[in-house]
Amino acid sequence: MLRLFTSMIVIALAACSAPSDIRDSRFIMGTLVEFTVVGVDDEVANTAISTAANEMQRIEDLFTVYGEHDNSVKQFNRAPVGTPVRLPDEVSRLLEAAETIKIDSHGAFDPSLGGLNLLWGFSLHDKPTAPPPQKKIEQATPPAFCVEKQGDAWMRLNKRCQLDFGAIAKGYAIDRGIEILKSHGIEHAIINAGGDLRLIGRHGDRPWRIGIRHPRLAGEVIESLELEGDVAVVTSGDYERYYLFEGRRYHHILDPKTGWPAAGSQSATVVADSAMLADAWSTALFILGNQPFPTPNNLNMRLLIVDNKGDITANTL
Ligand code: ADP
Ligand code: MG
């Protein structure tokens, strides 16, 4: 039955869209971000969506390590080791949240593997077609203790430590986008950034219906959820940015312990209150695979992990 539902969340939402839906999309953070708003007039919806999209673009510009424009994250990554650097409050706060998740996930999530990530190059324009040499991987893999806060400032402890918010900033941007929609009086909406989303309210007289993509069968869903209220659903998968080399799959979610793409999972989905937490934890749980899940109880998360054999190893959805 599940297969009757369409694959991509994007399509799943479109399929059940009601006439009163107001929809718009923007290309932000390297993905098509879809806004769906229900229950307000067009003018309110359009203003709210534009403001939310601008805010999400601002967040991308603040955190990205790509592109021509300089920002405090790139400056930090260039700063000499051992020199305290003042980061904007917002960057400092997200880094603090990321460092907490690093500790709670036993190092599976690591916001300082930016150098290693650039070496693998999955997010660059010219994507590589073969893995880098082991020696270069070792030289780029950050040590366990990488950045330290001193008063208001942060410093790098090793030249291999380079910040990368790629596994958490999109979730944070979605959260900010939802806050903006709410501040415009919107009570029913979804912001869907390429399958990572947060929803509020209901879809007319029904809950929102969300399809979670099957990690191997393009066009099919592995789970379909009916959700309402205020909830985020984020998936990390090895099918988004990858290449095959000598019969093996190499993808963009890196195990900080080995420096290589994590091998334990095909996808990890987290349902949580905050898209920021769901984003970071979906990456962490993807890496942890079927190891015991150290997710802190107080985070109130539900999980769906598909292991490297395609078996569902944890389903609390
Ligand atoms: P997506 O960006 O496809 O939604 P993720 O949220 O899992 O996927 O984030 C993957 C990105 O996060 C990578 O492109 C890289 O920038 C960064 N990253 C890769 N491995 C890790 C890791 N172990 N911890 C933190 N960030 C990571
Ligand atoms: Mg993530």
From TrEMBL:
GO molecular function, a single term: transferase activity
Alphabetically sorted, this entry's keywords are: Cell inner membrane, Cell membrane, FAD, Flavoprotein, Lipoprotein, Magnesium, Membrane, Metal-binding, Transferase
What topology does it adopt in the membrane?
Answer: Lipid-anchor
Reactions the enzyme catalyzes: L-threonyl-[protein] + FAD = FMN-L-threonyl-[protein] + AMP + H(+)
- Name the EC number(s): 2.7.1.180
Q: Where in the cell is it found?
A: Cell inner membrane
Q: Which residues bind Mg(2+)?
A: A167, D279, T283
Q: Which note does the record give on the cofactor?
A: Magnesium. Can also use manganese.
- Give the protein's function: Flavin transferase that catalyzes the transfer of the FMN moiety of FAD and its covalent binding to the hydroxyl group of a threonine residue in a target flavoprotein.
Q: What is this protein called?
A: FAD:protein FMN transferase
Q: Which organism is it from?
A: Mariprofundus aestuarium
